[in-house]
């Protein structure tokens, strides 16, 4: 079919970067949402080469969903968009299925046509209940409301930057096909910082970095990670909702780029036995009038009293929020101290086995790093729970809290029990969302072995727990 008569939008990467950075500046500077909305609507109406607007939202577990709306329809109906919430895991029951979808016009992205298709732009959505109130299961909306509230009441800006590790495996759909192949094949075995300039992993990283840059991510560095065929592409910090949006976009674009190259980008925490797993180290700071509240030149490790209180509250509630930060069966395979995994509930400036680390910083970069976050966590839920706990939580009366001999669970069943009985979780999420999330995680956990070293028996074949665990598509 000829496409010569089509004239869909396909912008050069440098032009994309300029547009996205301008939009990002509006978001950072908290330009009035009314002003931003009118600017975006005017652009869409005048740009004839756009055929569709892709609206993104995430379910309770953090799975990203995309809906393409015809541009002309969206322009006339953006205030009355609806969808079937009962088809989304963790959302409404069938008897009360209708939900509304609003538009967060500040979260608008121009995208490379070679990755996302021609004639499209992206914007994040806001899930709204039938009565017009924010939907409690939309954790993006919960995080945004909390961030906006702290800014309005205290002048706080919540900042986050995430170091998201993943694996690049040979072949498309390598995760889905594991039950037939029984293995993951590396595309590179070079190791940390080590690869040839044009090997498959390096080409994948370079391509993904170019796409990120064009979308206004403001890259910092990228490199192969410790495990074979493992990667990490770092970018600058941002306001917390924008940072969570970028996590979702990062995983979306790397998966599509990998597919385009005939590979699979995997964000399972522990897809391969015997090598390091993947984490999502989460760096956090709070600023007030552009002053970093985490910094104190005379503080312990240069971290302020505010920062240490933030850490103490997280350590106090580590067991309560563990399931949020490590939400899958597979995530607990990663929390193995033999592979640099942060399973100790303590804080340290140097020990990378600690749940919380205090990196070297200055007045601008000083931060707290929560290391025990898996890359398959819902980023909105994870960031909300960490900031809400660090700012509004209470401190436990535990002797030597920051260095006590305490450990995160080594299996998802225990994490579910801690989450289910937590009064703190009920307070910050509500009993309804707490129950729904528990049910989703219990359903997956019940289909998998509890302890390392066990076997799962079937009618004719016996699977070792690691292989069985990896071969199931219920790891999220």
Task: Please explain how this structure is put together.
- A hairpin with a 5-residue loop joins strand 1 (52-58) and strand 2 (64-70).
- 46% of the residues are buried.
- The strands form three sheets. Strands 6, 7, 8, 9, 10, 11, 12, 13, 14 and 15 form a ten-stranded mixed beta sheet that branches. This protein has a five-stranded mixed beta sheet with strand order 2-1-5-4-3.
- With 476 residues, the protein is an alpha+beta fold.
- The radius of gyration is 22 Å and the shape is globular.
- The protein contains 16 helices and 17 strands.
Describe what is shown at a glance.
It contains 16 helices and 17 strands. With 476 residues, the chain is of the alpha+beta class. Strands 6, 7, 8, 9, 10, 11, 12, 13, 14 and 15 form a 10-stranded mixed sheet that branches. The chain has a 5-stranded mixed sheet with strand order 2-1-5-4-3. Strands 16-17 form a two-stranded antiparallel sheet.
Keywords:
476 residues; alpha+beta; 10-stranded mixed beta sheet; 5-stranded mixed beta sheet; disordered C terminus
Radius of gyration from the CA trace? Answer: 22 Å
Q: What structural category arises from helix and sheet content?
A: alpha+beta
Mean model confidence by pLDDT: 89
By DSSP, the count of extended strands is: 17
């Amino acid at each position: 079919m000829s496409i010569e008569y089509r004239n869909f939008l396909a912008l050069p990467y440098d032009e994309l970067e300029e547009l996205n950075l301008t939009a990002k500046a509006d978001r950072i500077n908290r330009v009035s949402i009314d002003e931003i909305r009118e600017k975006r609507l005017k652009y869409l109406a005048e740009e004839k080469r756009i055929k569709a607007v892709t609206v993104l939202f995430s379910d309770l577990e953090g799975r990203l969903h995309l809906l393409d709306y015809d541009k002309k329809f969206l322009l006339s109906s953006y205030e009355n968009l609806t969808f079937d919430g009962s088809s989304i895991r963790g959302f409404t029951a069938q008897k009360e299925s209708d939900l509304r979808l609003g538009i967060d016009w500040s979260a608008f992205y121009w995208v490379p046509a070679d990755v996302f298709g021609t004639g499209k732009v992206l914007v994040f959505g806001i899930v709204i209940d039938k009565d017009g109130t924010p939907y409690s299961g939309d954790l993006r909306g919960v995080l945004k409301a909390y961030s906006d509230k702290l800014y309005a009441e205290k002048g706080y800006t919540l900042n986050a930057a995430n170091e998201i590790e993943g694996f690049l495996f040979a072949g498309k759909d390598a995760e889905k096909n594991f039950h037939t192949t029984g293995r993951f094949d590396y595309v590179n075995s070079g190791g940390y910082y080590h690869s040839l300039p044009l090997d498959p992993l390096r080409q994948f990283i370079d391509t993904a970095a170019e796409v990120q840059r064009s979308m206004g991510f403001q890259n910092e560095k990228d490199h192969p990670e410790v495990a074979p065929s493992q990667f990490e592409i770092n970018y600058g910090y941002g306001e917390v909702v924008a940072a969570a949006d970028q996590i979702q976009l990062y995983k979306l674009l790397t998966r599509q780029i990998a597919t385009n190259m005939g590979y699979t980008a995997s964000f399972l925490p522990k897809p391969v036995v015997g090598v390091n797993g993947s984490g999502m180290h989460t760096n956090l700071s709070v600023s007030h009038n552009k002053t970093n509240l985490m910094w104190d030149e005379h503080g312990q490790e240069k971290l302020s009293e505010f920062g240490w209180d933030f850490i103490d509250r997280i350590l106090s509630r580590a067991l309560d929020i563990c399931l949020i930060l490590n939400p899958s069966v597979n995530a607990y395979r990663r929390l193995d101290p033999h592979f640099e995994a942060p399973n100790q509930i303590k804080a340290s400036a140097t020990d990378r086995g600690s749940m919380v680390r205090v990196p070297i910083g200055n007045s601008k970069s000083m931060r707290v790093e929560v290391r025990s976050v898996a890359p398959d966590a819902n980023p909105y839920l994870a960031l909300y729970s960490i900031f809400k706990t660090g700012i509004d939580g209470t401190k436990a009366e535990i002797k030597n809290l920051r260095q006590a001999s305490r450990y995160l669970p080594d299996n998802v069943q225990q994490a579910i029990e801690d989450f289910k009985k937590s009064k703190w979780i009920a307070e910050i999420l509500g009993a309804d969302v707490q129950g729904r999330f528990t049910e989703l995680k219990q359903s997956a956990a019940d289909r998998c072995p509890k302890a390392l070293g066990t076997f799962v028996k079937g009618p004719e074949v016996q699977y070792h727990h690691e292989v069985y665990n990896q071969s199931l598509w219920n790891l999220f």
